[in-house]
Write a structure and sequence with these properties.
about 280 residues; Spore Coat Polysaccharide Biosynthesis Protein SpsA, Chain A; 2 domains; 7 helices; 9 strands; globular
């Protein structure tokens, strides 16, 4: 970090699992921020490979700015984020995943918005899939802001986790031990508690793999669907939603799931046909 750069009161929390080859890119996107976070917390989720060594190297390189937590057992991204959240000291927390990255103006734009709107508890923004050969989109300065209602979060997750900044001292956390849709449930709990949630319509975060069918968590569509359905059951048991709304949410979720499965299978079939045809459509 350069001493003359502006530091904002934000802790960045990154869950790390077998990410030795990607986490440096994620950290580099934080280092390149025009406004730097006060601290970065890297949580190794019992990777059992060379990931932890890479994290320690980063902690040594950025002494006093990066802190590493090494978990003894693999607990999943949500619980790993909670471990970082627990030692955060700044009033705001921003989440980033170890294989994603940010636009250089992300923290400046998002923190300034939340500082000027103290009634906002959670703020997200647009996220785009960016491959190595793609040029980053332009970050809009005069962007529209969408207020996200609690009911709308029953039908669509408005945020990718690497876009979210929230207040540290809220009484909610990622559900411990939940491995799928745990981030979605947290956004829903916050919104149904009556706290204000918004999305900045500017592309300030990048994922580097396709959303569906690209491997890893995003390829495990059924487990993701199960996680989403369990969210609705949790909200119903907590009396956040009534039974008709619960039933409608489940119905639309299953319809979306069937569409995702169909799209994924069609993509696989098209690739197979192109390979058999020598690459000629």
């Amino acid at each position: 970090m350069e001493h003359d750069q502006i530091v904002v009161p934000v802790n960045v929390v990154i869950p790390c699992f077998r990410c030795a080859h990607t986490v440096k890119c994620a950290i580099d996107s934080i280092v390149k921020q025009t406004h730097k976070p006060a601290g970065v917390i890297l949580v190794d989720d019992a990777s059992r490979d060379d990931t932890l060594g890479v994290l320690w190297e980063l902690e040594k390189r950025y002494a006093g700015w990066i802190k590493v937590i090494a978990l003894d057992e693999n607990v999943g991204a949500g619980s790993a984020r909670n471990a970082g959240w627990a030692i955060a000291t700044q009033p705001y927390i921003a989440f980033l995943d170890a294989d994603d990255s940010w636009h250089p103006e992300k923290l400046r734009i998002q923190y300034e918005y939340m500082r000027n709107k103290p009634d906002i508890t959670l703020c997200g923004h647009q996220c785009v899939c960016l491959h190595n050969s793609d040029d980053p989109p332009v970050a809009l300065e005069n962007f529209p802001v969408t207020k996200i209602s609690a009911n709308s979060l029953l039908f669509k997750n408005a945020f990718s986790t690497p876009t979210v900044m929230l207040k540290r001292d809220i009484p909610f956390r990622f559900q411990e031990g939940k491995h799928f849709a745990e981030d979605f449930l947290l956004w829903q709990q916050i919104a149904f508690a009556g706290l204000q949630v918004v999305r900045l319509e500017s592309p300030l975060a990048y994922v580097h793999k396709s959303l569906y069918g690209a491997g890893g968590l995003s390829a495990q569509l059924w487990k993701m669907e199960g996680g989403e359905l369990s969210n609705f059951a949790f909200l119903y048991r907590a009396a956040s939603i009534n039974f008709p709304l619960y039933a409608i949410s489940v119905f639309f979720s299953v319809v979306k799931f069937m569409k995702r499965v169909l799209v994924t299978r069609l993509r696989g079939l098209i690739k197979l046909l192109l390979r058999r045809g020598g690459g000629v459509a």
